[in-house]
Amino acid sequence: MSQRNIVLLIVIILLTAFALWVVLPNNPGIHIKIGSWRFDRDIYIHLGLDLRGGTQLLLEADLPAGETVTLDAMEAAKTIVENRVNALGVTEPLVQLQGDRRIIVQLPGIENPDAAIQTLRSTGLLEFVDTGDLSLPEGTVIRTTYSTTSEGGEQPTPAPTATAEQTATPTAEAAPGATSTPASITDRVFTTIMTGRHLKSARVGTDEYGRPEIEFELTDEGAKIMADFSRKNVGKFLTITMDKVVISSPRIETPITEGRGRITSQQGFKLEEAQRLAIQLRYGALPVPLKVVETRSVGPTLGQDSVQRSLRAGIIGLIVVLLFMLSYYRLLGSVADMALLIYALLNLAIYQLVPVTLTLPGITGFLLSTGMAVDANILIFERMKEELRAGRPLHSAIEAGFSRAWTSIRDSNISTLLTCIILYWFGSNYGASMVKGFAVTLFIGVLISMFTAITVTRTFIITLFSLTGEKLREKKWLLGA
Fold this sequence. Notes:
The protein is α+β, with helices and mostly antiparallel strands and 481 residues long. It has helices at 3-23, 49-52, 71-87, 113-121, 220-232, 271-282, 304-353, 360-389, 394-429, 433-468, 476-479; strands at 30-34, 37-41, 46-47, 54-61, 94-98, 102-108, 126-132, 141-144, 184-195, 199-206, 212-218, 237-242, 245-248, 260-263, 290-298, 357-358. The chain folds into three domains: 3-29 and 301-479, Multidrug efflux transporter AcrB transmembrane domain (Multidrug efflux transporter AcrB transmembrane fold); 46-117, Alpha-Beta Plaits (2-Layer Sandwich); 120-272, 2-Layer Sandwich (Gyrase A, domain 2), CATH 3.30.1360. Helices cover 48% and strands 20% of the residues. The strands form five sheets. A five-stranded mixed β-sheet has the order 8-9-7-12-13. Strands 5-6-4-15 form a four-stranded antiparallel β-sheet. A three-stranded antiparallel β-sheet has the order 10-11-14. The longest helix is centred in the C-terminal third of the chain and has 50 residues, at 304-353. The radius of gyration is 30 Å and the shape is elongated.
């Protein structure tokens, strides 16, 4: 047996062991900590709305009576809502327009619908407001020079022009003993220095005490505005608001000149609050305010009994295929069965690691790709049998079987992969999430089937030949020839 085949055999064994560990029901997940860097990932099967249930929302443009909303604005709102849903960790959601002012959102397996609703419907208008010597308490509602037409028809006031260059990265900290103010201020309009459009990125971080905070980076334009303003207002307060509600009111201790900073809560962010706020900041403000018209919990559309029957049918079908390969191709069939089991393990492992949400169409794609994996083995074995009948040595028959079957396997699988790409594009552009699920599982299955049929099966057969030699050729019944 060649060194290359030994290496491949070791790689296959390690891959199989890792896949088996991933698909174990009580998998502990992946938890890695190196210094201050930490990676945590729970590993489990994600089920779609039709198998697991979830929450369905109907959002509607919340505008004054008689005011119309453009299709472009609703399309932009749909895109932002979709980005926010994806950032929530919801896999294979459905977000699509209904009519000219409504958006349907389906969230499979969502655990905290109230938090999701707040994240999706909030307009997400971030403002950095000059409050001078006032540090406003968190939750205070204020008026600013920046407002949308739905808030009274005022137009945004341009931010001050800046000429300063970036030189350092200090952080604004909330100051103790700040002036107390009422819960709302309606008799004063504060100047908006800049808005969320000047934000380049936002993510959840932790402060020196391990408490959640939001770390942000500004665009070049925003960094210049911030540098100019902070230089002129050291010791003053720069209040940060979301949808006109104060979330933080830090004092500018030193100029903020590098375009980076952090948002902290005076009372301390909860992790969920920080994540929700970071999502809203990262994916921009909605062009139109949205209200929740309808919220309802959706049970599995197939029903638990139907799900169990579908799983039972799939297992029975797989067992029938394994028995057929074993009875018809005997020793070669047992090798194919081993490769097929590895194929199933790798698929399930990838579904959990990516993750891929399993819906009924997704399971259909997996079963279809399983049939293609069997087809590839059948093509290879039939070519090998033809070579053996022609009197070729077993080693030559193995090589010829794989080389001659490869072109057929390659062409059929490439055409299937192209079809998957088209289906995925269709599902992405027309809101057909179930079509996307079918395309994804079929695409992954076809790629893995090519690996198992060509690499795994071939490695196993060559290993078997190296142990038995040409003696195996005489046992035609065992080879199914």
